[in-house]
Design a protein that fits this description.
With 76 residues, the chain is mainly beta. The chain is built from 1 helix and 5 strands.
């Protein structure tokens, strides 16, 4: 069995910032992970966490060894 990569990061986007995705002005979210890597991923990956206040919290993303998306979950 291959080992999944786990990348943890904090994310804070206001509702208006996320709205840019729907307006076609943005497609990706870019954050600095806890290990210092800058990662970018499709904004749709965090859409399920969107509230009226935006998206805020600490997340963990799982990727295959080939950097293919597996899942994302909110830790806090």
């Amino acid at each position: 069995m291959t080992q999944l990569q786990r990348i943890r990061f904090a994310l804070s986007l206001s509702y208006d910032e996320y709205l840019k995705v729907y307006q076609g002005m943005a497609k990706n979210v870019s954050v600095v992970a806890d290990d210092g890597r800058r990662i970018a991923f499709p904004a749709g990956r965090v859409q399920s966490f969107l509230t009226k206040q935006g998206i805020s919290g600490y997340f963990e993303m799982e990727l295959t060894p080939e950097n293919k998306f597996v899942s994302i979950k909110k830790l806090s």
